[in-house]
Amino acid sequence: MALRLRDWLISRQRYWGTPIPVLYCEKDGMVPVPDDQLPVELPYDVEFTGREGNPLSRSKSFVEAKCPKCGGPARRETDTMDTFVDSSWYYLRYLSPRDEARMFDPEIAGRWMPVDQYIGGIEHAILHLLYARFICKVLHDFGLVGVEEPFQNLFNQGMITRFSEKSGRVEKMSKSRGNTVSPDELIAEMGADTERVYTLFVGPPEKEAEWSGEAVSGAYRFLTRVWRLLERLPEAPPTAPADAALERDTHAAIQRVTQSFQRFSFNTAVAALMELSNSLGKALEEKTASRLRCEQAFDALVQLLHPPRAHPPGRPGGRQAARPGGGGRHGR
Ligand SMILES: [Zn+2]
To answer: Ligand 1: distance of its center to the CA of 70 in Å?
Structure first.
């Protein structure tokens, strides 16, 4: 792996962030905080005034410390680490979050690493992702992880945009722009399944997509139609001449949904489900398929609507079986 990393300034003049465990003594200069005084925790008596500079530097209880070398007065470092420092290795910390002595348990990391699938915005591709890979390589060289690359697959999702009353333009959905949609209200009105179907159907997940209230209603109508199909199944005749057509449509839908899933192309998977529901509706309407075929089509439709977790591409399914939900080592 050839990385062209630039020097990375990890310090920030912010309250939030991990304190840099360093003290300054007039006599001894820069002194690291001894292990038994770690972690250095952020103080609570901080005033956020909006004035220039780091609010931490105005917290006496934080700044004033004792030099571990000479016992004289020392000043605590008030810069904190950028949050990228944490996100560069948190995938390892998640594996042993309660370990108080080490960053993570190398044995557990050996069982779980690398990460199967990384999903993130493209804005992380040149900073966070590079640092995360670099730090993994360093930890590998230290013998703490068995892999040099932390992530097996990368998927960059697009952003959701929406018309903003404030600016009169379609913009990235964000709280500061006042154009967000509360999922709670949507779920209360049309249910969580509508929200899920809409989110998957809004467009190719790697592209930007504009939120549309009308399309949300479309997702709701689709699910209502599926529900009505169930009620209409008994209308199907015992035998029918055109059984093969509905059976073909059913298998075509299974194939399309499966392939779409593997490509993260969830919008085309939903489109395939809508087509299958239309074929089944038409067969029931025109009585062209038998009851058995209609029931098979409906079963397939419902199963495809709530698919089990797919194995990530390139990963043998057997590995999943070796991951019980705990095994005694995870939680303490
Ligand atoms: Zn000193």
So the answer is: 4
User: Residue ranges of the domains in the chain?
Assistant: 11-81, 84-157, 181-305
Ligand 1 centroid, distance to 35 Cα (angstroms): 17
Q: Could you tell me the sign of the dihedral formed by the alpha carbons of 82, 84, 89, 90, in that order?
A: positive
Which three-class secondary structure state does DSSP give residue 81? strand
Q: 211-228 pLDDT, tens per residue?
A: 888 889 999 999 999 999
Can you spell out the DSSP letters for 122-184?
Answer: GGGTTTHHHHHHHHHHHHHHTTS-S-S-SEEEEEEE--EEEEETTTTEEEE--GGGT----HH
CA–centroid distance, residue 76 to ligand 1 (Å): 12
Fold for 181-305, please state it.
Isoleucyl-tRNA Synthetase; Domain 1 (1.10.730)
DSSP three-state, residue 41: coil
Ligand 1: distance of its center to the CA of 21 in Å?
15
Query: CB–CB of 172/159 below 8 Å?
Result: yes
Tokens 């470092």 sit on residue? 77
pLDDT digit string (tens) for 34-63?
999 998 999 998 988 888 888 999 999 999
In the chain, % of residues over pLDDT 90: 59
| Residue 259: CA count within 13 A, CB half-sphere | 9
Q: What is the pTM of this model?
A: 0.66
